[in-house]
Amino acid sequence: MRNFRIKEILYSEEGSVESSLVLIPSLLIFLIVIQLAISVYDRSSVQLKTQEYARVVGLDGYSYEQAEYARDHHIATTFVPMPSGRKLVVSHSLSSQAALSNSLIPFMGGVPVSVFGFAISEQGN
């Protein structure tokens, strides 16, 4: 008799809607927070990559290897003359957000991320 009662409880389709009313919004909030965290990480990695490129060009000068790296990573570089005779290296990178964050804004096809990196050239003139 006791076995029958346990099976009846396990296979019963009766229940409360409250659990799903709490679970669905909680899951949506969790997914949005994860997507925002990935977006922040993606922007930070692009910023670090662009700043590192400006630093390398500032220390080593502009070479064929740096030009290939810039072309592959979509980094534009500008040299601005300074009164001291040195040049300010300004690197600019424009890319789109990570693929997961596109589901936050499904109709835009990605949010552009624009970052800059700065360094002072040690090459003199």
Short structural summary:
This protein has one domain (19-120). It contains three helices and three strands, in the order H-H-H-E-E-E.
Helix content: 40-55%
- Strand order of the main beta sheet, please? 1-2-3
Question: What is the number of independent domains?
Answer: 1
Q: Termini, distance in Å?
A: 95 Å
Relative strand content: 15-25%
- What class do helices, strands and sheet pairing give? alpha+beta
Low-confidence stretches: none
Q: What is the averaged pLDDT score? A: 79
| Main β-sheet description | 3 strands, antiparallel
Give me the number of helical elements: 3
Order of helices and strands: HHHEEE
Notes on the structure:
This protein has 125 residues and is α+β, with helices and mostly antiparallel strands. It is built from three helices and three strands. Strands 1-2-3 form a three-stranded antiparallel sheet. 50% of the residues lie in helices and 21% in strands. It has one domain (19-120).
How would you summarize the topology of this molecule?
Layout: H1 2-10, H2 18-60, H3 64-73, E1 75-81, E2 87-96, E3 112-120
Antiparallel strand pairs: 1-2, 2-3
Quick tags:
single chain, three-stranded antiparallel beta sheet, alpha+beta, 50% helix, 125 residues, rod-shaped
